[in-house]
Write a sequence for this structure.
């Protein structure tokens, strides 16, 4: 079931990652939902951050109209589609970017797929940040976990220079351009519609390249600008939201009981809290690397250990996509 629905699982992870894409610009947290919705012509409250003519066609088309049913496969497809569509006839894959807030009526999720992403967002936000003690400040500061603050623009100026970017808004445009390039590898056009290819190797390459792009650009903005939660950059929050969304969709695919529990909780006006278990892989990496007498032996064992770790990560995150890596050192991966 999981291999059959790998495209659905990977896209759910990516949509979870992109839910706060609106924060990747010069205004960060301020009115980010309204700005991203205006950009994709869902509303016209604000001037678009990126003009429509500058957004790659494949990005605009997929974000607005790619249907969830296009990536549902296997024997459980009909049941999953019925469950995820509940509340809306034909939900779009990327719609949670525009509808993922329970506490603001105009952004309320409309179907169970959007509610999954909204729950993942809320769960990570509550665990990571909790309550904020101030309104959005005039200037944006990024803090360390120990409270040391630095102006965000000063913190990221070297990276902007390295990437030949003027500011975070230009960073968003560059993200669109690079994301469009890798999307073109897993999609094709048929009868005027963009559809997804069913090729495992292409999806592996697509996911790897997606993470290369977001690891480059998303750390340049903040998930939250209000103190004391301004120590979380956008990448950290989006990575965990994508990971929770991924595990949530896996649970829905495998368990009808979980789907019913989710529906019942949501129908009562409460957010559903996913209870996860850690899959831990342990190995004695320290002993392996220290019980050598020659530098070439140390280098060789390091390379072999890294190869094993990469393979474990690939199995869990892609081959049998049940979760994401959240911590590792020379002794464990979980």
């Amino acid at each position: 079931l999981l291999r059959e629905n790998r495209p659905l699982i990977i896209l759910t992870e990516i949509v979870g990652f992109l839910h706060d894409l609106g924060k990747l610009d010069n205004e960060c947290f301020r009115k980010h939902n309204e700005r991203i919705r205006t950009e994709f012509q869902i509303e016209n409250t604000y001037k678009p951050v990126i003009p429509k003519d500058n957004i790659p066609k494949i990005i605009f088309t997929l974000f607005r109209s790619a249907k969830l049913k296009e990536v549902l496969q296997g024997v459980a497809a009909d049941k999953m589609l019925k469950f995820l569509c509940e509340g809306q006839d034909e939900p779009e894959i990327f719609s949670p970017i525009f509808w993922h807030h329970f506490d603001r009526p105009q952004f309320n999720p409309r179907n169970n797929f959007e509610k999954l992403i909204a729950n993942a967002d809320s769960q990570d936000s509550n665990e990571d940040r909790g309550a904020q003690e101030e309104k959005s400040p005039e200037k944006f500061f990024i803090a360390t976990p120990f409270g040391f603050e630095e102006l965000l623009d000063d913190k990221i100026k070297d990276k902007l220079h390295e990437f030949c970017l003027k500011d975070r808004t230009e960073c968003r445009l560059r993200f669109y351009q690079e994301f469009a390039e890798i999307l073109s590898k897993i999609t094709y056009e048929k009868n005027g519609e963009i559809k997804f290819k069913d090729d495992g190797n292409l999806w592996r390459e697509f996911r790897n390249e997606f993470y290369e792009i977001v690891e480059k650009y998303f750390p340049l903005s903040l998930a939250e600008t209000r103190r004391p939660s301004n120590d979380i950059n956008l990448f950290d929050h989006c990575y965990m939201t994508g990971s929770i969304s991924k595990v949530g969709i896996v649970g829905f695919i495998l368990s009808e009981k979980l789907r019913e529990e989710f529906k019942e909780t949501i129908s009562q006006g409460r957010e559903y809290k996913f209870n996860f278990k850690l899959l831990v892989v342990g190995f004695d990496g320290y002993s392996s690397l220290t019980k050598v007498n020659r530098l070439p032996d140390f280098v060789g064992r390091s390379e072999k250990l890294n190869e094993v770790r990469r393979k474990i990560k690939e199995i869990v995150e892609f081959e049998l996509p049940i979760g994401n890596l959240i911590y590792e050192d020379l002794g464990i991966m979980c």
